[in-house]
UniProtKB/TrEMBL annotation:
<dbReference type="Pfam" id="PF01212">
    <property type="entry name" value="Beta_elim_lyase"/>
</dbReference>
<dbReference type="InterPro" id="IPR015424">
    <property type="entry name" value="PyrdxlP-dep_Trfase"/>
</dbReference>
<keyword id="KW-0663">Pyridoxal phosphate</keyword>
<keyword id="KW-0456">Lyase</keyword>
<comment type="similarity">
    <text>Belongs to the beta-eliminating lyase family.</text>
</comment>
<dbReference type="GO" id="GO:0050371">
    <property type="term" value="F:tyrosine phenol-lyase activity"/>
</dbReference>
<protein>
    <recommendedName>
        <fullName>Tyrosine phenol-lyase</fullName>
        <ecNumber>4.1.99.2</ecNumber>
    </recommendedName>
</protein>
<dbReference type="InterPro" id="IPR013441">
    <property type="entry name" value="Tyr_phenol_ly"/>
</dbReference>
<feature type="domain" description="Aromatic amino acid beta-eliminating lyase/threonine aldolase">
    <location>
        <begin position="48"/>
        <end position="424"/>
    </location>
</feature>
<dbReference type="InterPro" id="IPR001597">
    <property type="entry name" value="ArAA_b-elim_lyase/Thr_aldolase"/>
</dbReference>
<dbReference type="InterPro" id="IPR015422">
    <property type="entry name" value="PyrdxlP-dep_Trfase_small"/>
</dbReference>
<feature type="modified residue" description="N6-(pyridoxal phosphate)lysine">
    <location>
        <position position="259"/>
    </location>
</feature>
<dbReference type="InterPro" id="IPR018176">
    <property type="entry name" value="Tryptophanase_CS"/>
</dbReference>
<dbReference type="InterPro" id="IPR011166">
    <property type="entry name" value="Beta-eliminating_lyase"/>
</dbReference>
<comment type="subunit">
    <text>Homotetramer.</text>
</comment>
<dbReference type="InterPro" id="IPR015421">
    <property type="entry name" value="PyrdxlP-dep_Trfase_major"/>
</dbReference>
Length: 459
């Protein structure tokens, strides 16, 4: 490869040992876990690419910030500081802390959704759709069609198809659409970004129909980087300025602070609407805690405030994206099929192209994730038919066009050498892909089955 990748913009101050296991040991561990990588013990995993959620290595300044945690039950000074930082960097007037992103999704869904409503979004996310459906809404995918083509390499595959959104408004009426859920970036499309122009257009269309736009802002800084890199007019703007403009096209957001806020726990719900804020503060007491801490300790709010500042550092985000691209480039050079272009937080193996001989009903992505663990102790996760779940009305599997395995890169945790181990394991599996068989699901939870479902290899 003749591409230059930047060195880590940090030095290592503390280390944590990782597991070194034998093939025989891994065979035992994956069988005990029912071929579900979520059910593996962390101590049995070598390189953990299950998720970037809460797996960040916090900085020395974040650890120092935790020492000034104010654990008052009400009126914590750390909450006031976090509120100040959110207003400064994101621009929203109100913030309601939650224990993590799905706590914010729960509040938003309960406050805004009525039975029979429709919530359009640029591809579903598992917990988001679950909360929407539990409150009586129907999710409608309005992402551009190109996002469902793993091999198509075009920019901003996360964009909303405005024609789809307009058609839904005409079909069901604006009064049955409480908000548009706009993910920046789009996880299940492969970490694909949304352009600033598209955000602006969605906001303008929704404003004409008095429909709110709520961002899933979990990986908003990564999205800002792609805008800076690839959208005309933004090359000379700072990540911080781009992020602030992005948020100006939303009425609020849900945030899992465990991603781009660079902490191990926590999240929040933001909004500008005073009435919506009052409803959220009433409900957060029931599910999370006082409005001035929600589901977070004071020390975690302080670490999050510092993490938000660090997240817009230009050297940090450039290195983060470069790590994803390094792994993607290694796999592409070896012919391993992945989602193109490479997204901001992970490389996604295209399991449908990797294992074309395994039907989707035999869970090829689930098996590929298990095989990667067997090969090298690397833990990844399925993002395909298992994650998609079942249609609540028909009971049939949702059958997404994308059948993926996500190789998620935690922030500031692994080096390029670790990524070489991952790449080598994927390449080795691809060379022997014809020997891999499918799975049978032997235990299926009713909700969010991918977390705890169990499987066994087909004979």
């Amino acid at each position: 490869m003749d591409v230059r990748y930047p060195a880590e913009p940090f030095k290592i101050k503390a280390v944590e040992p990782i597991a070194v296991t034998t093939r025989a040991e891994r065979e035992k561990h994956i069988a005990e876990a029912g071929y579900n990588t979520f059910l593996l013990k962390s101590e049995d995993v070598g390189i953990d690419m299950l998720t970037d959620s809460g797996t960040t290595a916090m900085s020395d300044r974040q650890w120092a910030a935790m020492m000034i945690g104010d654990e008052a039950y009400a009126g914590s000074r750390n909450f006031l500081h976090l509120q100040e930082v959110v207003r400064e960097y994101y621009g929203f007037r109100h913030i309601v802390p939650t224990h993590q992103g799905r706590g914010a999704e729960n509040l938003l869904s309960q406050i805004c959704i009525k039975p029979g409503d429709y919530v359009p979004g640029n591809m579903y996310f598992t917990t988001t759709r679950a909360h929407q459906e539990l409150n009586g809404a129907t999710f409608r995918d309005i992402i551009r069609d190109e996002a469902h083509d793993a091999q198509l390499e075009i920019p901003f595959k996360g964009n909303v198809d405005l024609n789809k959104l307009q058609a839904l408004i005409e079909e069901v009426g604006a009064d049955r659409i409480p908000y548009v859920c706009l993910a920046v970036t789009v996880n299940l499309a492969g970490g694909q970004p949304v352009s600033m122009g598209n955000m602006r257009a969605v906001k303008e269309l929704c404003a004409r129909h008095d429909i709110k736009v709520m961002f899933d802002a979990t990986r908003c800084v990564e999205n800002a980087y792609y805008i800076k890199e690839g959208e005309p007019g933004y090359a000379d703007k700072s990540i911080r300025a781009i992020l602030k403009e992005m948020m100006s096209y939303a009425d609020g957001c849900t945030m899992s602070g465990k991603k781009d806020c660079m902490v191990n726990i926590g999240g929040f719900l933001c909004m500008n609407d005073d009435e919506l804020f009052m409803k959220a503060t009433e409900l957060v007491v029931l599910y999370e805690g006082m409005p001035s801490y929600g589901g977070m300790a004071g020390r975690d709010m302080e670490a999050m405030a510092q993490g938000i500042r660090e997240s817009v550092d230009e050297a940090y985000i450039a290195h983060r994206i470069a790590q994803c691209r390094y792994l993607g480039d290694r796999l592409t050079e070896a012919g391993v099929p992945i989602v193109r272009p490479v997204g901001g937080h992970a490389v996604f193996l295209d399991a449908r192209a990797f294992l074309p001989h395994i039907p989707q009903d035999e869970f090829p992505a689930q098996m590929l994730a298990a095989q990667l663990y067997l090969e090298a102790g690397v833990r990844s996760m399925e993002r395909g038919i298992v994650s998609a779940g079942r249609d609540k009305k028909t009971g049939e599997h949702h059958r997404p066009k994308l059948e993926l395995v996500r190789l998620t890169i935690p922030r500031r945790v692994y080096t390029y050498a670790h990524l070489d181990v991952v790449a080598d394991a994927c390449i080795a599996l691809y060379k022997h892909r014809d020997n891999i068989k499918g799975l049978n699901m032997v235990h299926e939870p009713k909700v969010l089955r991918f977390f705890t479902a169990r499987f066994e290899p087909l004979k």
